[in-house]
């Protein structure tokens, strides 16, 4: 079993408005509702890749829709109920001027007691898991050391933890030495305290994290592919050339590909291929869609991996 934790789930509401105007009455021509939050997206991708997955995290009174969606997809979920409503993120697509506006809420107020309940829930469920994915932002009321604390606690059980977060949540998480992290270049730059651009700069910063005890640092670079650092080798994964329809959720599919490979004991090169193929499958589709297994099987054959000698 693979477990994903979504501490800050969201209902994503996409409004399609032609000629969207600020400060005016706008008419919505179509709207789409989606179950969002990074851990939930990772779970949908993992399910499509054929894995058993369980979703943990918080869920507010307005979140029944998300549980129904997961249920329909055959994804088990055991969320800790909280008193406050979860976020509703509004996305506005203007099809006339081709603009995309994202209005994201920060997240619900959660009490100390609710956080304790989530920690107990993670502790109980990970006994049935070999791999756990901690993904996404923390609600503002949750201590930035949350991921670090959870990693310390569950690592002792021999479970491999993948962390995909940003800012202080990632910084404190790294200190607890998860098995793997997947920052994008911007997130790694935050950790480094300077803007990283060139591959050698990214490798230098990533290697510091490897030397501190994280086993895999995969740095995604959007349309430029990714760099995967381990204590043995450094891999450069070329992007696969496809017709890009939307990049939302590419990182979550990449994380899912890695979790799939680690969980199924695939060799590192094979695991990298899964991650690259799954994320490419997502960018080929509009909106927040999960990868398709058919695409992944075809795209896997197209992944080119180079090995970079350590300088
Ligand atoms: N424009 C693109 N063309 C080809 N592949 C892409 C493109 N954008 C993203 N990808 C694929 O998706 C992977 C992850 O993308 P990215 O670096 O954008 O993740 P992210 O910033 O974490 O995204 P997210 O918003 O989901 O958190 C890349 O390493 C690459 O394999
Ligand atoms: Mg990301």
Characterise this structure.
This protein has ten helices and 14 strands. It is of the alpha/beta class and 311 residues long. The model has no long low-confidence stretch (mean pLDDT 95). Helix 4 packs parallel to helix 5. Helix 5 links the parallel strand 9 and strand 10. It binds adenosine-5'-triphosphate and magnesium ion. Adenosine-5'-triphosphate (ATP) binds next to helix 8 and helix 9. The site of adenosine-5'-triphosphate has 19 residues, from helix 8 and helix 9.
Main sheet specs: 10 strands, mixed
As a percent range, the share of helical residues equals 25-40%
Structural category = alpha/beta
Query: What global shape is seen?
Result: globular
Order of helices and strands: EEEHEHEEEHEHEHEHHEEEHHHE
- CATH architecture annotation: 3-Layer(aba) Sandwich
CATH top level is: Alpha Beta
Distance between the termini: 39 Å
Whole-number total of structural domains: 1
List the helices and strands and how they pair.
Elements: E1 2-6, E2 10-16, E3 30-36, H1 38-48, E4 53-59, H2 64-72, E5 76-81, E6 87-94, E7 99-103, H3 112-125, E8 131-135, H4 146-155, E9 160-164, H5 167-175, E10 180-181, H6 185-192, H7 199-211, E11 216-220, E12 226-230, E13 234-237, H8 250-263, H9 268-283, H10 293-300, E14 305-308
Parallel strand pairs: 1-4, 1-8, 2-6, 4-5, 8-9, 9-10, 10-11
Antiparallel strand pairs: 2-3, 6-7, 11-12, 12-13, 13-14
Bound molecules: adenosine-5'-triphosphate (ATP) and magnesium ion.
Domain Carbohydrate kinase PfkB: 22-292
Organism: Thermoanaerobacterium thermosaccharolyticum (strain ATCC 7956 / DSM 571 / NCIMB 9385 / NCA 3814 / NCTC 13789 / WDCM 00135 / 2032) (Clostridium thermosaccharolyticum)
GO molecular function: 1-phosphofructokinase activity; ATP binding; tagatose-6-phosphate kinase activity
């Amino acid at each position: 079993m693979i477990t994903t934790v979504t501490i800050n789930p969201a209902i994503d509401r996409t409004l399609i408005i032609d000629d969207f105007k600020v400060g005016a009455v706008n008419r919505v021509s179509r709207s789409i509702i989606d179950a969002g939050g990074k851990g939930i997206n990772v779970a949908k991708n993992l399910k499509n890749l054929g894995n058993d997955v369980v979703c943990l995290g918080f869920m507010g009174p307005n979140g029944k829709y998300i549980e129904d969606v997961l249920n329909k997809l055959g994804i088990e979920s055991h969320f800790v109920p909280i008193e406050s409503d979860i976020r509703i993120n509004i996305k506005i697509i203007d099809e006339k001027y081709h603009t995309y506006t994202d209005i994201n809420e920060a997240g619900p107020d959660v009490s100390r007691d609710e956080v304790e309940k989530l920690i107990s829930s993670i502790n109980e469920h990970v006994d049935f898991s070999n791999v756990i994915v901690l993904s996404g932002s923390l609600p503002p009321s949750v201590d930035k050391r949350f991921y670090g604390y959870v990693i310390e606690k569950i690592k002792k059980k021999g479970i491999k933890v993948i962390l995909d977060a940003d800012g202080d949540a990632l910084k404190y998480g790294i200190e607890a030495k998860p098995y793997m992290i997947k920052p994008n270049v911007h997130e790694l730059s935050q950790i480094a305290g300077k803007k990283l651009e060139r591959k050698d700069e990214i490798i230098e910063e990533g290697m510091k994290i490897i030397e501190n005890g994280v086993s895999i640092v995969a740095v995604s670079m959007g349309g430029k592919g990714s760099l995967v650092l381990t204590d043995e080798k450094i891999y450069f994964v070329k992007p696969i050339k496809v017709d890009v329809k939307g990049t939302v959720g590419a990182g979550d599919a990449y994380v899912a590909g890695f979790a799939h490979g680690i969980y199924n004991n695939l060799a590192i090169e094979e695991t990298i291929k899964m991650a690259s193929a799954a994320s490419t499958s997502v960018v080929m589709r509009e909106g927040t869609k999960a990868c398709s297994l058919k695409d992944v099987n075809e795209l896997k054959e197209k992944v080119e991996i180079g090995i970079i000698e350590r300088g």
